[in-house]
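Record minuted for everyone:
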Amino acid sequence: MKHLDTATFKTALLQQRSALLTQLSTLRGGEVGRAQASTEHFATRDDTPAAANSARDLEFALDAHDTAEIAAIDAALQRLMDGSYGECVDCGAHIAEARLKAAPEAARCIHCQEQLEKNQHV
């Protein structure tokens, strides 16, 4: 998208990616994988098995969410490199600049995103 200041969006995406990687590293306990970190973290807890399972499931969900966010950011960075950033991946329409400022990793225009979410809930 030629009328966008892509450098600003690239900076925002890289900062967001870095923050998420730091968050994941903290959640995982460093460089270990999430299964190993979870096993180590919950091996010494005094919680009931149900509470430990709930906490572990929450950690897995947070990890999965952060991993998906990183993938969305990486895809947005790729669109910046190939010149398609700011164009809806579904319909090709321009994504509103306000939407990109709020969510620089956005791949779809509002209409297509709403359709996607509506179809996922069916």
Q: What stands out?
A: The chain has five helices and no strands. The mean pLDDT is 85. Residues 49-82 form the longest helix (34 residues). The helical segments are 6-28, 34-43, 49-82, 97-102, 110-120.
